[in-house]
Amino acid sequence: MDTRLRVGRAIGKDESEVATELMAQLKARGHPDAPPAIATDGQGSYREAMVETWGKVPEYSGWGRPPTHKKPQPGWQYLQVVKHRSGGRLEGLTIKVVYGDPEEVRELLGEHTAYIERTNLTSRQMNGRLVRKTLSYSKELEMLKASCAWEDWVYNLTRSVKTLRREVNDGFRRWQPRSPAMAADLTDHIWTVKELLMTVVAPAIVNTN
């Protein structure tokens, strides 16, 4: 929330299908031991995916059968905003703190999904393939994935976000514009699209020994 950085994206028919893939991305990209604080709506299988990704099997006490199912761990923070609809109209909200101290989680994440809705709107403005009820949708999954990957790169590296600007007052300017990648200390400047296109990413070296 502090950087607006897009850390992962999973594509599927519904949230239940992509929850496990998204959690695996979060684990590989900065959260190896525990999930970050997460807020979602009431749909999908995020709770189950969190347990499967970061949960641990309790130690065997020596009595009965050894445990085999993973359990959530202390320190997790997860909040659901459950929307109640009738005939397509929103009638109310229920805030459900799934993991963590209710007061701490509510204070940290708020009682809304505004950040999610904001990034969804930004995606539709940047990526025509995500606009609803148009003919610009992707007919092939590969093209949709490529278009979304490009959108995330452009958003993270080349776009300045007003709420991320830093006050510097260096005699030439009052504010330093920053991109989400700058706010996350992944780069020291706002990239140009040309720079992004000409950057060659070194392949990851996988140790098979």
Total number of helical segments?
7
Give a count of the beta strands, DSSP E runs of length 2 or more. 5
**Biggest sheet: strands side by side, in what order?**
1-2-3
Shape from CA axes?
globular
Which structural category do the helix and sheet elements fall into? Answer: alpha+beta
> Could you tell me the mean pLDDT?
90
Strand fraction? 5-15%
- In N-to-C order, the SSE pattern is HEHEEHHHEEHH
Distance between the termini: 38 Å
User: Ranges with pLDDT <50 over ≥5 residues?
Assistant: none
The description of the largest β-sheet is: 3 strands, mixed
**Helical proportion, percent range:** 25-40%
**Rg, nearest Å:** 20 Å
Oligomer: single chain
Tell me what you see in this structure.
- By secondary structure, the chain is α+β, with helices and mostly antiparallel strands.
- Helices cover 34% and strands 13% of the residues.
- It contains seven helices and five strands.
- It has helices at 15-28, 46-54, 102-109, 114-126, 141-158, 180-183, 193-198; strands spanning 38-41, 78-86, 89-99, 166-167, 175-176.
- Strands 1-2-3 form a three-stranded mixed beta sheet.
- Strand 1, helix 2 and strand 2 form a beta-alpha-beta unit.
- Helix 1 (15-28) runs parallel beside helix 2 (46-54).
- It is globular.
- The relative contact order is 0.12.
